[in-house]
Amino acid sequence: MALKKDFVKFDKVDKSYDGKVLVVKDLQLDIEEGEFVTMLGPSGSGKTTCLMMLAGFETPTNGEIYLDGNAISSIPPHKRGIGMVFQNYALFPHMTVYENLAFPLRVRKIPKDEADKKIDKALSMVSLQGFAQRMPGQLSGGQQQRVAVARSLVFDPQLVLMDEPLGALDKNLRESMQYEIKHIHESIGVTVVYVTHDQSEALTMSNRIAVFNDGKVQQLSSPDALYEKPVNSFVAEFIGENNTFAGEVSDISGGKCKVKLANAEILANPISVKGKGEKTTVSLRPERALINPNDKMDNIHSGKIEEVIYHGDHTRVRINLLGNSEFILKVPNSSSNLDIKLGNDIKIGWNSEDARALDPK
Amino acid sequence: MSSETKQILTTDGIPLEVSLKKAERKNKIKAFLLVAPLLFFLIITYVFPIGDMLFRSVDDKMVTQMLPKTFKAMENWDGQELPDEEVFAAFHEDFIKLVEDKREGKLSTQLNYTKNGFKSIIKKLRRASKKFEEGNYKEQIMSVHKRWADVEYWRAIQRRAPEFTGQKYLKGMDMYVNEEGKIVSVEEDRRIHRVLWLRTLEIAFFVTVFCFLMAYPIAHLLATLPMKYSNLLMICVLLPFWTSLLVRTASWMILLQQQGIVNDFFVGIGLVADDNRPEMMYNKTGSYVAMTQILLPFMVLPLYSVMKTISPSLMRAGKSLGGTPFVAFWKVYFPLTIPGIGAGCLLVFILAIGYYITPALVGGASGTLISNQIAFHMKSTLDWSFASAMGLMLLSGVLVIYWLYNKIVGIDNIKLG
To answer: What is the per-residue burial (b if ≥16 Cβ within 10 Å, else e) of B221-247?
Structure first.
């Protein structure tokens, strides 16, 4: 079965609520059939608006959205056949779990015995058999969440939208629900568009992540590419931890560039800089910088330890390095022989390949 | 409360529990003292008047005290034929005393409530009694007027013997105890109260329905509009609250009268002929219109407070799951507003059932309610016990409705905000 590359397609979509500010700007986004795509971004970045446009609760100001090749802007929400999980579950409080799940089937006039089978299946998928006659108010947050997921899937939609569904759960429950939703997605192969502002959630669950900021998709790529190869400083900053140096390109050649800082010069990997004299922000992941580096690394500098924070599996070390007093290192705690003490001077090294010279902030 | 403490000491005597009780008792006393002023206020302004009303409505001591000897003598009378001399003599003795105190007029009024025709014969008896000779009062009294020789009238007097009576309640239902002691309805052309009760229920019911139909969309709009608009709308809803009831009713009179603004408008757009202006006031229509407008906020506010708590995502969920907007509304939104509907309807109905000023001013003859009748008896006939009885009937009607509501919907399901 050939999976459609552009099962969901946002084509040059603009959205404005007040006619003055564009909440979504020229959005171009293709989602493959069966894919788990997460829209990730800070609040106000337009990600929920995109989801609402896809669900049909908002209309695009300009452009068109296609679902399975059909333009859907003029189709009302109840005819789109898209399952949706809402931020606060939106379970109908006056109906039992069974009735909640039966709602989408009843409005589709599915015969009762067939509907019962589907409901059983959906409930077992979220391991909530035996809860059919409970009222939503009698369930815990996690159980309500599962009912909401089951309800969005019970009528076999091709596409399921999830709007920060785990936002109201505590940390442990959130993590286990992440895996559960991921497994459900894998087992039934439904296309999922997921909105969250929690980057770890996005990294764990998604096939691809669209990082939103300022109404635009900053980067759309797989979780590892997003983390390892951010294309601009917003993404680098937003995803994971990040050490930055602001400077100016002084030389660029052979896939490397020299960046002149206030009182030093470092080697970096030119990503979005083209020529000499350009301002840039160099981004380096904390785990890519090593203490007491070997000589193969082409950046070796020394700094003073300003803070040591014990984190159990690793220790975070804050160093004043090349004028950046917020430089963070993550040191695995197995290497306890290292001489990490407050006030010590240590040598730090990294490969220029990992130091990405991006657009200036 | 001290006995409770003692009990715990004697049964298990755990010092911790005792001290806990003590600590709680302090708080309880504090809490009680805080609510005490309101409690006393309620007792004085609510429990006492209602108790007094209840008492007044059944109190019938007046006649009992005016004719003590008569009633004592009547104890042996079977009521079949005219009472014997003993009763007449006792009645004469009581009556002379009343004449001396100039209270025979009150007696005639009271007895007239029981049976028409006492007024004149008591007047005649007062005049004649001055010339009465001692002994054989039966003959002498019977000769004053032929009604005194009618056993019916003596039975009527006997019926006033008990200190308490429920006859005012029967009168409120257009019924009375007839000569045989059976409860029967009055003649059809004299049944005024039943019509009024039914009309009161009818008007209260329809006013509730109209209020509901108008308030539901308003409340929904209030709950869903952005804050800056909803505040303005809320003020519009509340504005009538801040205006005097009389002013509002009077303005409806200006609007609805035959030469009024609404009629002028209808004539202006050619809906009705100038010489055939519809009467919209001094009838039921007037009561409906004015009462609906005045009671509308009482429906809007409970509905609004309930709708405010319904998350808009529920309707969205309903739609995203495939329900048409109507299905989503009917299956999801509407059931969730039932507590507000219940509260609003109960509130409006109960207020409407006892409404007084507005129907009195714009209701005319066909638009007045039972409360107007109560007021009439309070102010004009001064038959307070009858007014009390009808007031209590109204109150118990309200309690019955409350009980029914509790049975059908459940009172926990009510939400006033």
So the answer is: ebbeeeeeebeeebeebeebeeeebee
For residue A327, the enclosing domain spans: 241-358
Task: Give the 3-state secondary structure of residue A63.
Answer: strand
From the list B320, B327, B332, the residue facing A84 with the nearest CB is B320
A152 and A282 assigned to the same domain: no
For residue B321, give the nearest of A57, A87, A151 by CB distance: A151
Residues B65-119 have pLDDT tens digits of 888 888 888 888 887 888 888 888 888 888 888 888 888 888 888 888 778 888 8
The answer to whether residues A225 and A266 belong to one domain is no
Same domain, A290 and A337: yes
B268 CB-near residues (< 8 Å, 6+ apart) = none
Question: Which residues touch A152 (CB under 8 Å, ≥6 apart)?
Answer: A83, A84, A85, A160, A161, A162, B320, B321
- End-to-end Cα distance, chain A: 45
**B261 vs B266: CA distance, rounded Å:** 9
Pairing of strands A279-284, A356-358: antiparallel
Q: Edge-to-edge strand order for the sheet containing A208-213?
A: A82-85, A159-163, A191-196, A36-40, A208-213, A216-221
A108–B322: do the CB atoms touch at under 8 Å?
yes
- Three-state DSSP class for residue A10: strand
Q: Write the pLDDT tens digit of every residue in B219-241.
A: 999 998 888 888 898 888 888 88
| Bridge partners, residue A219, by sequence | A211
* Environment class of A46 (CB within 10 Å of its CB; exposed 0-12, middle 13-18, buried 19+): buried
- Mutation for testing the A interface, residue in B321, B327, B337, B412 having most A CBs under 10 Å: B321
CATH of the domain at A88: 3.40.50.300
Inter-chain contacts counted by CB atoms under 8 A, chains A and B:
69
